[in-house]
Predict the structure.
Amino acid sequence: MGDAFTFAEGMFRCPFTLYSAQAGAPVMIVMPALGVAARKYHALAEALLAAGCNVLLADWPGQGASEPRPNRRFDYGYRDLLDDFVPKLLAVAAQHFPGSAPVLLGHSLGGHIATLYAAANPRGGVKVIGVACGNIHYRHWRGVRRLMTPSAALTFNLLTAVLGYLPGKAIGFAGQEARRLMRDWGAVAWNGHFQHLGLVLSPAANNPTPALYIHIEGDQFAPLASTRGLAELIQQPVQVHCMPSPRPPQENPHSAWLRAPQAVVEQIHGWLASV
């Protein structure tokens, strides 16, 4: 059935895919967006491979090829991802790519988790890249869009209370998601911070983690203000690279870049050469 590791005391089986470039090259640990299967990142992985990077690609627990699907019994939250899932990804990377510097490359939710991991482990030896990601506090939007994330949080809390999980596919947002994961997500929508996770976060001014944040212009799911709001957890001063969407304007920039990832990979390649 291929390589996999277990998560949450064996509750979830988490398969992973490796793309090998060359010994000693950085290993890009790709962390997907909420509800987006790892297979959707194949073109990105191939582009990174062509740029000389090793790649480790895995689904979030219970998503894509990972089983079982979250429900009232099979549950997890942000803290579980930070304390268990990310360390296991790093261990897999170290096992298969010894001597390669690990880079947490996160899209949307993946960017949240990568940033929080670096904020809680400032000397963990990782680099962080966040693409189309941000702090989802409602104040990072303008006008009626400020209602988007808190309204979603209220709906998700109600559904997870009744069902024990979020039926994302049925409501057109994400996949079948874990109850605590969505409640952690929703808490940030209201308060803009991560104190509810009980993490000790290093001040950004004292955090040596090299980090690159990329904002895709026109991305209403992660506007520039939200990307800056996330980056400030580990960057001071905050530096966000803005780039146009590589796809037609009718396609949502938040995920459309995955269908044409070359421009993002070029930015990543140039940044890696400079740090």
Q: What stands out?
A: The two ends are 38 Å apart (CA to CA). DSSP finds nine helices and ten strands in the chain.
